[in-house]
Amino acid sequence: MALDGIVISNIVFELNQLIQGGRIDKIYQPENDELIVSIRNNKNSYKLLLSALANMPRIHLTDIPKKNPLNPPNFCMLLRKHIIGGKILKVVQPNFERIVEIYIEHLNELGDVCNKKIVIEIMGRHSNIIFCEDNNRILDSIKHVSLNISSVREVLPNRVYTYPPSKDKINPLDEISFQEFKNLLNGKNTIIHKAIYFSFNGISPIISEEICFRSNVNSSTFTSELTDGDLSDVYDSFTFFVSMIKNNEFTPNIVIDDKSNYKDFSSIKLSIYDNYESISDHSISNILDNYYAKSSNTSRISQKSSDIKKIITTNLERCYKKLDLQLKQIKDTETRDKYKIKGELITANIYAIKEGDKELKAYNYYINEETTIALKPNLSPSENAAKYYNRYNKLKRTFFALTEQIKDTQNEINHLESIQNSLNFVEEEEDLQLIRQELMDYGYLRYRKNKNKKALQKSKPFHYKSSDGFDIYVGKNNLQNDELTMKTANSNDWWFHTKEIPGSHVIVKTNGNELTDKAFEEAAKLAAFYSKANKSTKVAVDYTLKKHIKKPAGSVPGYVIYHTNYSMYVDPSDENVTLL
Fold first, then answer.
1. Which fold has domain 178-301?
2. Which CA distances in Å does 7 have to 12, 13, 231, 295, 543?
3. Residue 94 and which of 45, 116, 332, 469 are 20 to 30 A apart at CA?
4. What tens digit of pLDDT does each residue of 397-411 get?
5. Cα dihedral angle (29, 34, 40, 43), rounded to 10 degrees?
6. Residues 212 and 234 sit within 8 Å (Cβ to Cβ)
C-alpha cells in the first residue's frame, strides 16, 4: 500500500510533535534516492528517513541503521553545506497532498538568518526530494526531471518549484456540504468507491472502500444508482474520517493476513479487515519502519541485481541456442561410419570397377547384404574411395570438436545457472558484490577495480543449527561454496549437494561426532531448499564426507567432483532447523 494523505497527515503530526524546533546534526545519503537526516531535539536524537524509491517512497523516523557511504553524493554535500546546524521550524502537508514540506532556518556564510525547505513528493515512480529557497527557487533535487522526461513540469536547479497538478481534486479537510458532496460524486459517473478517491486529495482506494463499508453501501454501485439516503450515509462516514484527521485521532496499525504476511497499513482502523489480526502502535514511524524493514531491503536488492539478472539471462539464452545448434550438428556426424565403409568396399573391389562406372554393387560384410555405392564417373576408383574417406575423416574431426564444445557449453550453462540460483538467496549487498565479482572474473561483466575489498570478506554463509545441535553451513554463492567446502570444512565433515542440479554447498560440522539420521535428513532438505529445484518434491541429494571432494585445477567457482557418495530423496525445506 502506498502512503495516502491520511498516513502522511499522521506522519506530519508526529514529526511536528518530535522534531519541530530540533537541530539538524548530520545528513547522509546511503542510496541514490534516499536520505537520512539526524536531528537533536529536547535531549533526544532522531533519524528521519526520506526516500524517493520508486516502489516504496516514504518519510518517517527510523531506528534501522543505514551505512554512510565514504563518498557522499553532490546532493548530500549541498544539503550539508546549507542546513547542517539548521533549526526545524515546521513540517507541513500542503492541501492534503502526498507531499511533505520541512521548513528549516539556518545561518548563511555571512551569519544572516535564512530559510530553506525540503519538499518530499511521495508519488510512486515520480517521487522526489527537492531542496528549495524560501522563494521556491530550486537549489537541487535528488532526481532531475527535464522536459524530455516530463512535459508537465521541470524539476531542475534554478527553476521555480511548483506543485504537481492535482487533477481537479478537492482537499477533503475543506468544509463541504452534503449537496456539494453529492454533486461532486454524481459528476464522476463511475462506481462510488472510485468516485470518492477521484474527487479528493489524499484518499486512497482502500480508504474509499472503508468509507463505503462503514456506510453499508456496495462500493461497486454506480453513483447514479444510489439514493439520497445512501449518499447521506457515505457523506456521514466521510465527514467522520475528516473529523478524526482534523483532531489528529490516529490509530497506526498493520493488518496481517492468514499466512502471517503484512497485508496493509493505515493510520485508522480498517473495519474491512476485521477478520484479520493487526499490530497497533502509538507511532506511525514505528509502524512504517516495521512494515518496510524487510520489503525495503528485498526491493533494494532486487533493484540493484536487475542488471546482473539481465546479463545472466542473456548469456544463458545465448548458451542454450549454441547448445541446440551443436547438438544438431553432432547428430549429423552420426552417419560418418557409413562413408568409411563405402571407402573400404570401393578399395576391396577396386579391380571390379570399370572406367566410367556410376555405381558399385558390393557385398557389405558388416551387415551381410549387398550394397549399392554411388561413384563419380569422372574419378578413378581410388579417387572415389578417397572421397568417401575424406568425408568420413571430416565428420570424425567435427564429432570430436563438437564433443568438446558441447562439454564447454554445458559447463558454461551449469556455471551461469548456479550464479542465477545464487541470486534467489541474496540478502545483503555484500552477497551481491561477490556475485558481481565472479561475473567480472569470467568476463560477463566489464572488470572494475573493487574500491571496497572489505565488503567481499564480510559476506558469510547461512549458519543453521540442526534439531540435534549440529552446525550446518550453506553457501550463498559460488565463491562462498568454494570457501566453505575447500577451506572451512574438515575432512570428516559431511558435504551435501543436489544431484546434477545447481545449488548451494551444504556442510555439516561433526566435531568428531557421528551424525544422526535426523541431521542427515535436515541437511539434505536444506541442500534441496537452496537449489534450483526448491519448488519441486522428492529432490535427489548427494552427500559424502568432505575428504572425498576434489576441485579440479582451473575449474569455475563452486565446481567440485566426487566419486564416493550416497544419495537420498527429500522435499526441500528449512523447517526444524534454526537460522543463527
1. Helicase, Ruva Protein; domain 3 (1.10.8)
2. 9, 10, 25, 18, 53
3. 45
4. 999 999 999 999 999
5. -120
6. yes
